[in-house]
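=== Structure Prediction Worksheet ===
Name of assembly: unnamed complex
Input type: mixed (protein and possibly other molecules)
Chain count: two
Listed entries:
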Amino acid sequence: MIKTKNYDKQESAGGRKVESECNADMKTHFRVCRFIMETGVKLGMHSIPVATACALYHRFFQSASLQVYEPHLVAMSAMYLAGKVEEQHLRTRDIINVCHRYLHAGSEPLELDSKFWELRDSVVQCELLVLRQLNFHVSFQHPHKYLLHYLLSVKGIMNRHAWSRTPIAETAWALLKDSYHGPLCVHHPPQHLALAVLYLALHSYGVEVPQGAVEWWQVLCEDITKAEIESIISELLQLYDMEAKCT
Amino acid sequence: MERELLRQCLAFHGQSLAAVLGSEQSENEHFALIQADLSKAPQQRKDKKVDSSAVEQFIARKADLLFSSSWKSAAPAEEEWSEDTQEPYAIMPPLELFMDVLFEERRDLFYRDVERGDIVVGRINSIRDFGFFITLICTGGGLEREIEDLELTALCPIREVPSNGNHDDPLSYYQVGDLIRAGVKDIDRYHGKVTVSLQPFSLSPSLAKLKLGVISAEDLPLHYSRGLKVASSSSETYEKVLESSLGFSNPSNVEFLLGKLGISETHPPSLMRGLQSKNFCKEDYGTAIKKKQSASWALKCVKIGVDHFKSGRHVEAMNEYNKALEMDADNVEALVARGALYATKGSLVKAMDDFELALKSCPSHRNAKKYLCQTLVERGGQLEEEEKLVTAESLYRKALALDDTFKEAEDALQRLQVHIQKSLKVREEEAAKEQKKSKNVETSAEKLRKILKEEKRMKRKKRRLSSSSSSSSTSSSVSSDDDSSSDGRRKSKKRKRKRRRSSRSRKKRHRRVSSRDKSVGSKEEWYPAPANTSASFINQKQEVARLLDEQSLPDGSGGSQSRRSRPSISSSSLEVMDDSRGRFEDDPFDGAPQQMERGRGKGDGSLVSPGGRESGPRERKWSCGDREVLGAQRKESYSRPREQESPGKTRNKRHSSSSSSVAGPESSHRPESHADGYKRSDSCRYGGGMGESRDRLYPDEQDSRASGDRSQNGMVSSQGSGRKNLPPHLLDIFSQIAQFEKEKLNKAKM
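=== Predicted Assembly ===
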C-alpha cells in the first residue's frame, strides 16, 4: 500500500480524497476490520462487542488519519474498549496474545518482559485516545436487536416448516456481521441496516412473504424506501467483492 | 447442498440465476450433482421483478455457503413454550395486523399454517348438547395470527371436554361468552372447519404446560392485547410499539433471541470466505495461547526458585514456586520443585500431595516418581516410629508400586514386615509367659514363705528397717534408678508421681503383706493394687518371668535382659528388702508392678525421697552414674523401650521393643554393660555404705545380663565388700535378697 502525503489527506480524513487513496484506505480498513473480527472469534467475543469494536474503529477513522495512527493498534484498543462498553471484559494480556499471533503467525507466546509491558501500555494509551477522539460517545444502537425482532415477526407470519428449512436467521445474521467490514454501521441507522440485511437474506433464498396492504419491510421500518434498501445491499455486496481483492 | 432450497431459489429468481449459478459454481462437485435436477424445475417466476445482477452474482458465488447442509444442524430444538409474563424481548403483535393483510389471505394463511396441537383462544358463542362452539379470537403458543375479524368458528365436542365431576354434565360448567383456551384437534382445511379440544393431551409436547379451559382477559396472549391497542389507534407503528416495549430495552434480549432462533455465538456464521470459523486454528485462540504462556512464565519462576533453593534460600524459593503455581496451577515442574522443598523442610505429607498432583498430569515424570518414592519411604519410617505399622506398610508398598527398583523401599518394607512379625511373636511370647508366670508365682511364693520363716527370727532388725522404710524406699528408688535413668530423661514428673504413689502403696502393702504370710492363692489380689494400667502390670509380669528365665542376680539387680526386667527385678528385690519383715511373699511380681512405676520415673524421684537422707545426695550421684552407664550401653534400645515403658503405652509396643531388645542388641550389650558397669561403678563410688553398695549393685545389675554365675559371684563379692559398711540389718536383707534371687534363677533354670 503506497501512502502519498498530500494536503487533501491532512485536511480531513473524512473529506475529499483521491480515489485511489480512498480505495487504499478502504482496503486497509477492510483488512483491519477482518483482523478485529477474527481475533474477536478467537477471544470468544460475542457479536455485539465485536460490532461495537468495529463501529468504534470506523468512527475513529472518520475523523482521524491513517497516516498518523496505526490502525492495528487502534483496532486493539477498540476491542478493549468495546469489551468494557458491552460488558464482556477482556484482558489486555489475551488481546495482545491473540493479536500478536495473528500478525506473526505461528509465533511463540510473548514473554513477560519489557516489550510486553510496552505493548500493553500502548494499548491502554490508545484506548484513551480513542475515547477522546469520539468525545466519549461510545455507546451504539446496533442493528442486531432490531434484526432479531424483525426475524421473529417474519417468522410469525411464515409457515413454520418453510421457516425451519430455510436458514434465514443465520444468513441474515452473517450478513449483518460481515457488514462491519465497512463503514455501513456509521453511515446508516440501525433499523435500516437490519432491514436491508433481512431483505437480502429472504431474497437470496427466494422466500415469499405474504403480501398485505403494506409491504412487510415497510411495516418493519416506516421511513425506509426500496431504493435505500437496495443501496445498502449493493454496498454490502461490494464488501464481499472487496474480500477477493484484499485478502 | 440443499436441493430443495436451491430449487426454491431458482424458482424465485428464474433462468438468469441458473446461468450465473452454473458459471460460478462450476468447481463445486456438490452443485454438479444437483445441477441436472435443477434444470428440470420450473424456472419461471411468478411476478417478474427486476433482479439486480449483483445480487444474482452474489447468490451464485456464495451458493455453497448459502445452501450448504450445515445450516440445518443449527436449528434449535423445540423448547417448552411458556407464556411469559415478563418480557425477555419485545413481544410484538402479528405482522399481519400491521401489514393489513387481506381477509381472504389471512384466512387462507391461517388454515394453511395451523396444525394439530396448536393453541387457539376463543369465546363461546353457543352451547349445544353435543358440545360448544367458540369463535376464535387469536392464536396462542408459537403461532401469531390476526384472526379475530375472520370470525372463525370452532367446535369443541363434548367428549373433548373434561368432566369436573362424576355425575355433572361437563358442559354445565361453561357459559356463553366465556373465554376459552383450547388445543386444536383437527382441521378440515378444505371445508374450513376446526375442531378443538380441552383435553390436555391434545396439545403438542412443547405447549403441554398451558392450561386449557376457561381463562380470563389477563391470560390473553400479549401479542393479542398489544394488537388490540394497535388496531384501535393508527399512530401505533411497529417501530413505536417495539421501542416502547420493556423487553426491547432488556440488555440480554440479544442473547435470548439468538438462543431462540438457534444462532450460535461461539461459531458465528459468516458469508465471508476468510471468516469461516471452522478454518481457524485451535492454537490461535486466546485461551490456548494463554495456557501456553502461563506455563512458560511459570517455568521461569520455577527456575529462579530452584536457584534459590540450591543456595539455601528456602523462603524465596517457596515464594517463587507459589507464584509459578498461581500462574499455572497444574505446572508439573513447579509442583515437583515445591514438593522437593517441602520434603527437605520435613512437611512430608504436603510434599507427597504435590508429587501426586504432578504425577497425575504427567505420569512419566522421572523426578516426581523418584522424589515421591523417597518421601514415601521416609514417611513410612516416621510412621514406623510412631508405631503406625499398617500405614507405614501401605506407604512402602505404594513406593514399590511406583518404582519397583527402589531398593530402599524394599528394604524398609522387609524390615517392617520383620518388625510386625516380631511384635506378633512377642505378643505370643508374652501370652505364654503370663501363663508361665502364674506357675512361677506359685513356686516363688513358696520360697518366700520359707524365707519368711527364717526371717521371723530377725524381727527386730526388720523393725528397724521398717522404721526407716523411707530410706528403704529411697534405696528401692535408688536401685530403680537404673531403669529410671534408662527412660529417666523424659519422665521426671511421672517418676515423682509414681514414686509417691508407689511409696504410698508400698506402705500399704507392708501391712497387707504381713497379713498374708502364707497365703498362696491370694497373689492375684496383689496385682491390681498398683495404679498402673493393666498393660503395664502385665508387662511387669512378663519381665519378672523373664527374670526368672535368665537368672537374674539377687540384690535387686535382676538379670534383666531388657531394661524393663532390670528395673523390675531391682525394684522387686528392693521391695523385698523393704518389706523388712522378710515377707518375701511380697514377691517380685507384686513388687514388679509398683516398682516398675517407681523404676520408670525415678531418677529425680529419688532426689525427692521423703525425709532427706544422707543417702539422698549419694543416690543422686549414683543415679547420675547409673544414667551415664545405662545411657552408654543402651541408647539404641532405650529409645524404643523408653517410650514403651511409660505407662499407658500399648502392650504391643513394649513387647515389640522387648522382643527387639531381646533379639538384637542384648548380646552385644552384655559384655559392654559388664565392663562399663564396673568402670562406672568405680568412678561413682563414694564413701557411705549405701552409695557404695549401690555402686556394687549397679554393676551387678548390669552383670545380670552376663552369665548368671559370674555376675552372681561378682555380686556376692561386691556385696561382701559392701557389707562391711552397711548397717547389719541391711546386710542381712541384702543377703536374703541375693539368696532369693539365686533361688529364683535356679528355679528358672529348671
